[in-house]
Inverse folding.
C-alpha cells in the first residue's frame, strides 16, 4: 500500500487531489456566498450563541463532525470563524494529545497495511474532534480512508477540506494588507499555499496581525499572499509550545 511522507513522492499531487474532490458528486463545494470580505466577528458571535439560530454552534459543529455534506458556505463561515470563540480554541498551546498521537502514528510506518490505515482513520477521527479544522488531520483522513477504499468517508473529508479552504479564501483576496486571508493558526497559511501547489519563501510581518508570505515561484503574476493571524492572539497559551520536526502527505506537513 502506497504511503506518502515528506521525503517520499506524494500519494497525489495537490492539483490532482483537489480536482478529484471538486468533481466528486459527494464532495462538492458547499453552496453559499463567494463574496471576499472579512468575517463579521460580532455577527458570527451573536449567531453561534443563539439557540434558535441555524448557526447555533453546538448543533453546527455536531453536523460537521458527523460528516454532514449538506452544510452550506454560510455554515462553514460560522463553523470556522465561530471556532475562535470556543473554549477549545487554544492555538498557542501545545497540540492536543489526540493530534500528537495521530501524527506519531502517521510517522511510524512508511508503508501502512490495510489494518494500519484503519487505525490511522480511527486516530484521525479522534484528532478531528480535538482540532476540527486542521487541514493536516483532514488530509490524513483522506489518505487513510482512500487507502482502504472507504469512498464515503474519503469524500466527506474531501468536502471538509475544500470548504475549509474556500471559507478562508472568501475572507479576502489575499493580495493586499487590507484584504488578507483570515486564518486561525500560523500553520494554516502554509497548508493553504501547499494546497494551491505553492511553496512559501519568506514571512514578513506588515502589521501587528497581518503577515505577507512571499513565494519561491510566482502564482501567475502574484509574488505572495497576505494572511491575518489576529485570532491566534485572542487567547494566551498556558504553556509555550515547542518546535517539532515535520512529516507530511500530499504537500501538507504534519507538525
Amino acid at each position: 500500500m502506497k504511503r506518502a511522507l515528506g521525503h517520499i513522492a506524494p500519494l497525489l499531487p495537490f492539483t490532482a487531489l483537489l480536482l478529484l474532490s471538486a468533481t466528486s458528486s459527494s464532495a462538492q463545494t458547499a453552496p453559499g456566498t463567494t463574496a471576499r470580505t472579512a468575517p463579521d466577528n460580532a455577527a458570527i458571535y451573536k449567531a453561534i450563541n443563539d439557540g434558535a439560530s441555524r448557526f447555533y454552534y453546538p448543533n453546527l459543529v455536531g453536523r460537521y463532525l458527523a460528516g454532514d455534506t449538506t452544510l452550506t458556505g454560510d455554515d462553514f463561515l460560522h463553523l470556522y470563524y465561530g471556532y475562535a470563540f470556543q473554549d477549545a480554541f487554544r492555538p498557542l498551546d501545545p497540540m492536543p494529545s489526540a493530534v500528537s498521537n495521530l501524527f506519531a502514528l502517521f510517522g511510524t510506518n512508511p508503508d501502512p497495511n490495510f489494518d494500519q490505515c484503519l487505525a490511522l482513520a480511527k486516530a484521525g477521527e479522534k484528532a478531528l474532534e480535538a482540532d476540527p479544522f486542521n487541514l493536516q488531520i483532514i488530509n490524513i483522513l483522506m489518505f487513510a480512508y482512500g487507502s482502504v477504499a472507504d469512498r464515503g468517508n474519503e469524500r466527506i473529508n474531501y468536502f471538509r477540506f475544500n470548504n475549509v479552504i474556500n471559507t478562508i479564501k472568501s475572507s479576502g483576496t489575499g493580495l493586499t494588507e487590507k484584504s488578507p486571508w483570515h486564518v486561525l493558526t500560523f500553520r494554516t497559511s502554509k497548508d493553504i499555499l501547499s494546497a494551491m501547489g505553492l511553496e512559501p519563501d519568506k514571512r514578513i510581518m506588515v502589521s501587528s496581525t497581518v503577515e505577507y508570505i512571499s513565494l519561491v515561484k510566482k502564482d501567475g503574476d502574484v509574488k505572495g499572499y497576505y494572511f491575518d493571524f489576529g485570532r491566534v492572539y485572542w487567547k494566551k497559551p498556558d504553556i509555550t509550545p515547542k518546535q517539532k520536526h515535520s512529516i507530511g502527505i500530499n504537500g501538507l506537513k504534519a507538525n
Observations:
- Residues 123 and 199 are 29 Å apart (CA to CA).
- Confidence is low (pLDDT under 50) at residues 2-27, 240-247.
- Strands lie at 181-182, 200-205, 210-219, 222-228, 247-249, 252-254.
- DSSP finds nine helices and six strands in the chain.
